[in-house]
Amino acid sequence: MARYVKISSLGPAPCVIEAGGSAEEAVERMIAHWKRMLGFVLPDKPDLIVMPEACDRPSKAHYPKEERLEYYRVRGNRIRDYFASVAAEHGCYIVYPTHMQAEDGSWRNTAQFIDRQGKLMGAYHKNHLVPAEYDANGILYGKDAPIFECDFGRVAAAICFDLNFDELRLQYVRAKPDLIVFPSMYHGALMQNYWAYSCRSHFVGAVAGLPSSVLNPLGETVAQSTNYYPYITATVNMDCAVLHIDENGRQFAAIKRKYGPKVKIHDPGLLGSVLISSEADDLSVRDIIAEYGLEPLDDYFNRSLAHRCAPGHMEP
Considering 192, 211, 237, which residue would you say is the last residue of a domain? Predict the structure, then answer.
């Protein structure tokens, strides 16, 4: 059955707060900054809002480390509590990326997940830091890659430099999340598209000061922010599957004849794969796959590998 999810991504440049003021004033200004930015997307009534990496860290160009540590001390969980109140009031999930100090005094670069009731679901800790994050700031590497169970689907996270490492991506290839969220200071360019396609997942990037995007599981851009407006809202359908055209393609005309607009078969061109989705309330993609004996892309690739390795199939 169609599972429409409305996603908002916010990617303004880091908030500029001049050095020399009180930490209390800086916290209040940061909350005001995000209240203003959220005002651009909340009227769309999103199911999920994603912020950029370290979203409540003042611009480093204007705010030195010494003042930043005092700011973090005064901030505590106050900005998270603000986002939690917004999530509860508007009935949406919020991904809050931040630098947080653990009880033992160590630091993490984290993406905290807040549910529709304003409660903390858990957090993803950046697995692949830039070495300077540890050397200069004492931030520890994360070691886990949890999947967050939301009411619209299963969500994974990657933060900034993470996008360069296959170790994490392959974990998500196996886990098969419906959506990957990517809070970042770095855009990633084609790596965004590659992660979306290789994980067969929707992908949303929230990139500070650079274009933020929503991608489909074919790696295509569904929506992208601009130099004028650093935010987007887009609706995607999670009830979908990626299929190769080989062997499946012979069934596409019959599917369309029977179901018409209830089933969407989208061909991006050149890739050899399509995205099939159910646009109906009484029909799921799994139903269509079962009815027509369709083979999902990963099953086809795995079968092709097994066929290659069968006795007598490979040159001596």
Answer: 237
